[in-house]
Amino acid sequence: MFLPCFCSTNKLAQLAGIGQATLRDIEIGKKNPNVTTLEKICQALDISLGEFFTEAKPISVIHEENERYNLPDEVKKEIALIEEFVLYKHGIKRPKDRK
Predict the structure, then answer these.
(1) Percent of the chain, pLDDT > 70?
(2) Which residue from 42, 54, 75, 88 could staple onto 71, CB 3.0 to 4.6 Å apart?
């Protein structure tokens, strides 16, 4: 997890309203945050989920819906996670034929 230089993990835990031990476990990969915790961390960092998942090297912008399937697998997984979060946040369930 990238933290801006002005924010210690202790301060981030306080701003996000989560325990320092929890944040430390997430940071070292011992735990994966649930959607609510991830949203709290993003709010504390004043960033969007998209910014949180953005890697340093940019990729080309998708111009057509079907271009999404030509993306690297790790990008597809991140898009699926974000899509799942947005659907969950708005109480929308995925159709049974999609996972």
Answers:
(1) 72
(2) 75
